[in-house]
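**Paired protein data**
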Amino acid sequence: MADPHELTMLEQAAAIRNGALSPVELAEHYLRRIERLDDTVGAYVTVTADRALDDARRAADLLARRGGGDLPPLLGVPLPVKDLDPVPGVRWTAGSAVFADRTAPPEAVTHLVALLERAGTVLLGKTSTPEFGLPAYTESRVGPPARTPYDPALGAGGSSGGAAAAVAAGLAPAAPGSDGGGSIRIPASCCGLVGLKPSRGRVSPAPLGDVSGLVTAGPLARTVRDTAALFDVMAGPVPGDPSPVAPPAGPFLDWCERPPGRLRIGRWARPDVPGAEVAPEVLDAYEKTSALLAELGHEVVEAEQPLRPGDRDAFTPVWAVLSALPPVPPEREAELMPLTRYLRDQGRATDGVDYALALAAMQAAGRRFAAAVAPFDAVLTPTLAQLPQPVGALRDDADPAADFRAQLAFTPFTAPWNIAGLPAVSLPLGWTGAGLPVGMMLGGPHGSEGPLLSLAAQLEAAAPWRDRRPRVY
């Protein structure tokens, strides 16, 4: 058998069930790799070695009792959790030095973490995130920056940069992330992974709330099938969710085995963000992906950028209000990152009426975007406008406003899918001559994750990426 980290998440789950691999052996393997490689890529802010081995022993005991019978779908598979999500008894920094020594209390159980535990997973640790998950890079004061394993001089993107770095470097087989403006798809592009942002309401935020509707959890993985399988674990409503979605007719993994048929696919590569420019390597990957889609029999149609200049202006005050929600003691505000303080100042200056008006304007832009997507089975755009950026290149502590503008220019294609609440997936379909990944994004109408995964699986079969290995691996 190949080294355990070479197996996909589903292959690991199968190997555990048939006895070819023990949960304890697998957990120990990943812990050794984390100890050896994580200082280079900055994937983990906290490693829960003792908890991982305890979880693995419990998985082994359950397997021994039940044999091949009724078992959780990912029994014994080691996965991390992004450090924005609390896990009782585990350090919980949310990427902030203010909370560097905080431990999540026993009652701090999110629906997502409970689902991962119910699926039988083993907790490897908490993946690094920028402060409160706000920027499109993963740099904080509680740990080293997250770096893409394809070139550690370059950032892994954000805010799920630690999760993406972990999966790409073989420090986890897959990982959950969260996405409020691109935070799953941005690091997926930087790290050569599949990253799925689900439809609004598909993954419950319970017991937390997001009145903006921007943020959702979703999976990061090396393959489309692993992405779908982890998504099957994560997806599902909780009574009282503000944006419920009808459950799918069957598992999302089943969609990966279905031919997508001939689809009508719109495309655009012109950003709506003023001054944003798309790198030649990104445009080259975009054209090659368009050609591949046509070769596979799909109708590829030119479409206009649906958002007008100014349409997304309402996103900024809404994002700023979200940044002001974490309860930071007033005497410790000065310890926050400059960008965080800048956004929180704006958020606190936004009164209730202004916030309601911003939400209404953002929803209007989302409807315009959704109406432009509706005539197509899927829409193709680049994931990012640029290649992965050097660590520190986007961050500007001296001028947080310039920092925020640089992030928008880097990520002009991602946030509109959050604004509209539509699903989108980044696929590593482009590669530069130097071996850097270039993500291409496919989005679709609300609730269309299944057809998107079917199309993604077809593209993966036509242009496979599984055997590509980063520099740090």
The chain has a mean pLDDT of 97. The chain has 15 helices and eleven strands.
